[in-house]
Amino acid sequence: MDFRHYLNVLFNPKSIAVVGASEKAGSLGTTMWEHLTAGHGAADLFAINPKYKTLGTYKCYPTLSAVKQSLDLVVIVCPPEHYVKILTAALENKVKAVLLCGGFPKTELTEDFYNKLDECKKAGMYIVGPQSLGYLYPPAALNVSFLPHMPMAGNIGLISQSPGLVHTIINIASSCKGGFSYVIDPGLEYSLTTADYIDLLAQDNQTQCIVLYVENFKDPRRMLSAIRLAAKKKPVILLKGGKSALSGDIVINNNGRPQDHHDVIEKALKRSGALLLDSIYDLSYAIQAFSLRKAFFDGALYCIVNSKGLDTLVADTMGAYGIVPAVISPEAAEVLSTKFKVLFPFANPINVGVDASPKTISQILDFSLKQENCSGVLLAFVSNPLISPVDIAKAIAPIIKQASKPVITAWLGSHEIEPAIKYLLNNGILALEGIKNACLSVSLTEKFFNFRKNQSALSVPPQSLSDRNFAGARKIIQQAKKEDRNILYDEETKRLLASIGFETTASLYAGSLGETIEASKALGFPVALKIRSDGILSKSDIGGVILGIRNEKELRNAYKALQTKAEENHIPEEDFAVTIQRTLSDAYARELKVGMRNTKQFGPVVYIGVGGLYGDLGFKEEFNFAPISKSDALQLLEAPSISKLLSAYKGFPEVSKELLCTALLRLSQAAVSIPALKSIEIDPLLVGPDSAIVLDAHAAIWDKPLRPSAKAEHLVFPTVLSKPAKKISGDFGELLLRQAQPADIEGFTNYITNLSESSMRLRFHGLSTTPEEIAARALTNDPDRSYTIILTEPSKTRPAVVGEATFSLLPNGKSAEFGISIADNYQRKGLSKFLMAALEEEALSRGLTELVGYVLKDNGGMSKMMQKRGYSQTEDEADPHINLFSLELPEEASD
To answer: What is the distance between the alpha carbons of residues 720 and 784, in angstroms, rounded to a whole number?
Structure first.
C-alpha cells in the first residue's frame, strides 16, 4: 500500500512534460528544459512547443494533447494567454500535477484562468503556483526551477515565499556546509499552499531542519498545524517579512491581503513551535547550531572565557537572550580555585585568565562537562599574542568530540582567529565569530528542545463549560441580529456577561431626562451616565461617558452635555438615550481591562491590560489565542506588565488571581462557543482580593453562526468541543462512548497504567514510553489530524476509562492508521466493535478513503474482529510478526 505523502508525485515523477520548452538562449523555457535533461534521469521527458520538431535528442510535440502517454507532472513555461488551453489538455490527460512558472505580471492572470484552476482542483490535480520559481529535490538531482545551480544534498528543507531570497538563503547555508533535502517556492498558492509543503517536510525523514521565509498566511490554521507537527520532531526556523508598518504595506501590495499586527503573528508562530529570526544572516548560526544534534536542556549553561571584561560581555549577552548560567557548587569552586587557580571560582562565566595554557583550558572544559548541573558549555576566547588560537582549538577539540553534552565556541579577533575556527569546523565542532552569534545559537536550541518537552502543556485547552451556559448569551445576540445591529447595548452586554458567570453592576436605560433622574435615584448616587447608541462601540472615545455624578444638579448638567455630544456625532434627537450605572469604589481594588476580540487571520484572542482612567496611556496588553488553559491564563497574569499591578504594594493586598483566571477562561470559552461574538471588552473590571466586578463593558457581533461547527473552524488553534456521550449496553452493562478531551488526562493515564503487560504489548507493540506520555500524546494531538474516543463507566464524579481507540492521518492525506485497546476486565465482551464503528463513522465524515491497522499476528481476537468487519489482511513488508488490516471507505460518503 502506498502511504507516501500526497506531494510525492511532484518530487518523484515518472513522466514530465515541459510546455514552452525551448533552445532559445536566455529564455525561461530553455533554462527549465536544460535543468531537467541534465539532472533527473528516472522520469520520461516530453518537450511541448509547436516551433520545434526536436530539442536535442528529444522529440518535440506541438501540443500537450499530442502526448498520449499518461503524465505525472506538467511544467508550464509559456505566456498566461495559453494557460486555459493547456490546463484543459491536462485535464483530458488526467495529469496528476502542474507547475505554473513565473516570469509574467499577475495582472495577466484572467478570470477564465482561475475558473479553469478551480476545475483542475476539483479533479484532484496538484497545482504549484501560479508565478512560482519552481522547486528542487537535491537527493534525486531534480531541478524543476529557474535556479542556476543544484545545491548540495543534505537535511535542510527550505520553503520561501520570496523567489529572490531563495538563492541567497542557499548560499548562506552552503557557506556553513549545509545541504538541502528540498527547496520550494510556493508562488501565489492558489491551490497548494505553504502549509502543504511544511506538512511534507514535517513527515520527511531526511529533512532534519526546516527553514521558512514567510510573508503571508493563505490558510493560517493548516499552516500552524503543519508547523506544530514539524516542531515536535525537528527545528522550524522562520524569517517573517512585514514586521513594520512600511513593510506591512508592501506585503499587502505583494499578496493582496491585509495581515495582522506583527505581535499577533509572532505569538501564533511561537505558540506553534517556530523559532523566529530577525535577520537572514542569523540563519547561518541557527543552521550550524542544529547541526550539533545535541540539546541545551535539563540544567544550565557553563561558560568559560579567557579574559577579564570578556566575562562581563558574555554575561550581559547571555542575559539578553534569556540564557541561564549554572550555579557553581562549593565543591566545583574548590577544584577551580585549588587545582586550576581560578581567581573567582564561584563566578559563571568562569574566567580562566589571559595566560591560561591550552592544556589548562581543555582540563577546565572537561571538568565543567562532568558537572551534574551542566547542560552544555559555551567557550568564548579573545585572541592573545602569547597563545595561538589554533593551539587552543587543537587542545579542546578531542574533549568536545567525545562529550555527550554540546559545546559551542565563540571567537573574538580578526585574521588570527580564522585558522582556529576553520580547524574546529573541519572537525565538526561549532565555531562562531562573536558572542552574540554564539548566544543566539544556544538560545534557539534551548527554545526548540523546551518546546518539544512542553508541547503537550501548550496544547491543552480548558475544560469546557456546558453548552447550556451560553444559551442566554446566544438569545441576546440573536435579538440584536434580528434588529440588524452589530453592537450590543450596554445593558445587553452586561446581561450576556452575567449569563456566563460574571458579576456585574446594575444599569438602567432611560429615554428622557425625567426617566434618567428617576433611574439615578433608584440606583443611588454616585452614578455614571453614558450615551446609548447602536452605532458607537466605545462611548468614551467620543466623550460619551461622564463618571462620578453625585447629585441631581450634576446629573442634569451631564445629561445636557451628552445631548451635545450626540448632536456632534450625528445621533438623531429621537434616537438619543442614556444608560445609568451605579458607581462602585473599592480602596483595595485595581481597574483592569479584559476581553476577547477576533484578529484578521488568526481567530479570537483573549487579553488583559490596565483599565479605567489609565487604560489609554499606552500600557502593554498581554494576550493569547483562544482556547486558553488555566496555565495560559496564569502566564498572562505573570507577565511583567501585569504582575506588578496585581501584587501587594504599600498596604494594598494582592488581588485574586483565581478570579482573574476564571474571567479570562470564561471569555475564552465564549470565543470558542459563540462564533458570532466578534469582540467583548470589560473596562474596567474592578478586581480586589475577593471580588471581580464588571463596571463597564461593550460588545460587537458579526455575521457568523451562533454555534461553532463540529470542527470549530473559526479557531486557528483547534480544540475538541464537548459533545454528548453515546450510551451503549450489553453483557458488560451500560457504558458511555464519547470523544476524549484533554480533561480526561488523569483517567486516561490510570487506564494505561492498569493495562496488563500482554495488553500493552498487543496495543503498543512494545513501545518504550510511559503511561503519562501515551496519554499526553493521545489527548493533545491536533484534532484536525487525529481522533480519539474512550469508553467510560457511567459515574458522575471521575468515570473510569475502560477502553480507547484512535486514528491518525497518514502522509498520503487519504488514509488513517487506527489503534484500539480494552481494559483487561472488559475484554471478550464485544466492546471493540462499538469503538471500531465509531472510528469508521468519523473517518467517513472526514472524507477519508481508507482505515488501516497494524496487528500483531498473535493477537487472534483482534484479527478475527477485523475480518468480520470486512478488513482485508496482508503481511506487513517491514515486520513479519505483524499483519496489516485495511478497509476501503466509500468515497460517496465523504463531504
So the answer is: 10
Neighbours of 327 (CB within 10 A): 10
What is the side-by-side strand order in the sheet with 275-277?
142-145, 134-137, 180-185, 153-160, 209-214, 236-240, 275-277
Using the Cα atoms of residue 505, residue 506, residue 512 and residue 515 in order, give the sign of their dihedral: negative
C-alpha cell at 270: 511561537
The model's pLDDT over 595-651, given as tens digits with 9 standing for 90+, comes to 999 999 999 999 999 988 776 666 789 999 999 988 899 999 999 889 988 998 877
Amino acid occupying residue 785? R
DSSP code of residue 652: B
Give the residue from 499, 501, 509 showing the smallest Cα distance to 475.
499
Backbone angles phi, psi at 61, to 5 degrees: -90, 145
Contact 821, 759 (CB under 8 A): yes
DSSP 8-23: HHHHS-SEEEEET---
Cell, residue 179: 545541504
DSSP 598-667: E-SSS-EEEEEEE-GGGTTS-PPPEEEESS--HHHHHHHHTSHHHHHHHS-BTTBPPP-HHHHHHHHHHH
Using an 8 Å Cβ cutoff, are 465 and 500 in contact? yes
- CA gyration radius for the chain? 32
CB atoms within 10 A of CB 183: 27
| Cα–Cα distances in angstroms (integers) from residue 562 to residues 204, 284, 328, in the given order | 65, 61, 66
The answer to whether 611 touches 683, Cβ cutoff 8 Å, is yes
Which candidate, 646, 665, 664, places its Cα nearest to that of 655?
646
In three-state form (DSSP H/G/I as H, E/B as E, the rest C), the secondary structure along 158-196 is: EEECCHHHHHHHHHHHHHCCCCEEEEEECCCCCCCCHHH
Distance CA(361)–CA(280), nearest Å, equals: 34
For the record, the C-alpha cell of 753 comes out as: 497504567
Cis check: omega of the bond before 13, within 30 degrees of 0? no
Cα atoms in the Cβ-side hemisphere of radius 13 Å centred on 780: 22
Instruction: Please state whether 701 falls in left (phi above 0), alpha (psi between -120 and 50) or beta.
Output: beta
**How close are the terminal C-alpha atoms of the chain, in Å?**
24
Which tens digits make up the pLDDT trace of 50-64?
Answer: 999 999 999 999 999
What predicted TM-score, i.e. pTM, was given to this entire model? Answer: 0.87
Residues 6+ apart with CB under 8 A from 240: 213, 214, 215, 262, 265, 266, 269, 276
Other beta carbons within 10 Å of 369 = 19
